[in-house]
Amino acid sequence: MSARRQTPHPSELASTCGDALSHRGRGRSNAHRARIRFIRKSVSYTIRRYQIVPDGQSFRARTSLAFIRDSRRQAVHSPQPHLETRISDDWPSELYRVLKAADVRQMSYVPDAGHSQLIRMFSADRDVTTNVLTTEEEGVAIAAGAWLGGQRSVLLMQSSGVGNCINMLSLSAIGRFPLLMLVTMRGEWAEFNPWQVPMSRATQPSLEAIGLKVMRAETAEDLVETVESAASLAYDADQQIAVLIGQRLIGKKKW
């Protein structure tokens, strides 16, 4: 007497069905047909056990190959609520969109990992002039020159570079040249480098002491709205604005 075949656990059904379906174009041998019958019985058992048959549908209809195939396709391609795209997943792209909408034509920067995605986007844009700086204060003068030449500019830097700009920032403040700075913060959230901490504490007070308006964002949603507001203040009202991007948003570094 042959041993009775045991019904597999429900967690095994998906892979079993997938294997069977992958062979459906190779001919209909007796072994293949027997395997399909076994799959149908297994799925039917699982449906009955867990009561997952909608009203008005038969077990045979629910265990057909078409049902198995369509169910697998739906499981793969159906959107998952907890995986939906949010601004926080791609805030550099949102910032790029905001700055392009503000007609920014020049971008000056000292290479920084926190700004790396935004830098790459601007560098790939042929309508935007990118200026790699040797020190952050050069970007302040470039922003003033760009405005005099009829173009809007944005300056990207890290908080550790703010100290290099303090004297040059008087140019924008006294001359009333529009200035928009995006500053990624260090020395705050889970910082590993002690050298980043002192300048981090001094960043906002130093900028405010020289006459800049400082705005801060800790979430991606707030950051996009803040940069939109800052761009309007800078370019429409001839203000000097620094937007501080919290380190928690950038993410901690570990070398």
Largest sheet: 6 strands, parallel
Kindly, what is the distance between the CA atoms of the first and last residues, rounded to a whole number of angstroms? 66 Å
Strand line-up of the largest beta sheet:
2-1-3-4-6-5
CATH topology of the largest domain: Rossmann fold
When the domains are counted, the total is: 2
* Strand runs, count: 6
Structure description:
By secondary structure, the chain is α/β, with parallel strands linked by helices. The protein has 2 domains: 10-78, no CATH class; 87-250, Thiamin diphosphate (ThDP)-binding fold, Pyr/PP domains (Rossmann fold), CATH 3.40.50. It is built from 11 helices and 6 strands. It has a 6-stranded parallel β-sheet with strand order 2-1-3-4-6-5, sandwiched between helices. Helix 6 links the parallel strand 1 and strand 2. Helix 1 packs antiparallel against helix 2. The model is unreliable at 13-26, 50-55 and 75-87 (pLDDT under 50).
